Amino acid sequence: MVRVASYIQKVQLGLTSTRPDGYTPSALLRRIREEVAELMQAQRQTKQDVVTELAKQDIHLISPADLSSEERAAVRDYFHEAVFPVLTPLAVDHARPFPFISNLSINLAIYLEREDADKTLEFARIKIPPHDILPRLLRVEKIVSRYSDTVRQSSDVYRFLWIEDIIQDNLAVLFPGMKVLEAAPFRVLRDADIDYEHEQEQEQDSADFDVMEMIENSVRERRFGPVVRVAVPQGITERMLKRILDGLEVTSPDVIYSIEGTLGMSDMFELAGIDRSDLKYPVFAPRLPEPPGSENIFSAIRRGDILLHHPYDSFLPVEDFFRQAAQDPDVLAIKATLYRVGKNSPVVQALMEARDNDKQVTVLVELKARFDEENNLVWATGVWKIRAFTSSTAWKNCP
């Protein structure tokens, strides 16, 4: 979304300068595509190996065709109750433009035919619900136990359906009076690169230039970045592929990736939630180095330096350090740098507590930490509200 996208931009601008490694932008993109093809093949093989091993443990990825008629009826009831209400089919024609396709979303493209005398050809798009609405992998046993009183399910067997397969199996419900001719999933990757230097050059001469406002605007615009990759399933028809590419306004064949099997395989991580500890690595417990967490951190530091090697050593001593500094009456000022912090960071909470305790708090926030800009903007705004000092820097200029 970032590195490759920047070289696509260079090719589009006609830049032909050679990198230190001897590659021009266009040659580098060709080499990247060759390497990615090999990686994708390895990924497919690894996925198949994992699926085979999971099946030996009674964990199966199946399709609706593998269900019995009673199970399929239960899944259909689940679709009506839980899936159907959150779907928004959008027709595309001369009066209704192709909808915006958000980054990394999975969508269904559908060709339909009206069941009337004219047999009018229609095209529609359905966005697959994201994780925060519905899981992408749905356990059959859980659905059947709720929606069927006649089918008995084993608690030791795990069978999962992809939600897009359930949707495709029930397209007739979404399009009454129409015949589904073909349907194909597709996934879009957009350019997420933000050229801060260019933005700053454009705005810094303004008397009211605000770096935080510049970054906020850039982050908002990033979701509309140009398409740099379109993933489609192998076997997609030329007609369907052309319609998708036309809708996305994509002309270069180099951004098309034909995928064997499931799109967005990272969602298989949902299987890690299965309660099968015998199939998982032991839970890693970071070491809590001396001194014990209950000891005053400043007393420990006076005895000697403490080296923490993360993630092998626990991060708790760092959190305790900030917390004790915020509460210690002998601490007059705290200076800290925030690069990437969690949404409920104990470090930030300690800094706010220190400010409330009338200590001077100076915080250097890296607002340009890629893909953490929004989170850091939230913290920076919060720090401003408690009257601490907030700064932004370009880390590339630091030694």
Describe the structure.
The chain is an alpha/beta fold and 399 residues long. The protein folds into 3 domains: 56 residues; 205 residues, Polyphosphate kinase middle domain (polyphosphate kinase like), CATH 3.30.1840; 101 residues, 2-Layer Sandwich (Endonuclease, Chain A), CATH 3.30.870.10. Helices cover 38% and strands 18% of the residues. The protein has 13 helices and 12 strands. A 6-stranded mixed β-sheet has the order 2-4-3-7-8-9. Strands 1-6-5 form a 3-stranded mixed β-sheet. Strand 10, helix 12 and strand 11 form a beta-alpha-beta unit. The longest helix has 32 residues. The radius of gyration is 27 Å and the shape is globular. The C terminus is likely disordered.
Summarize the structure.
By secondary structure, the protein is an alpha/beta fold. It is built from 13 helices and 12 strands.
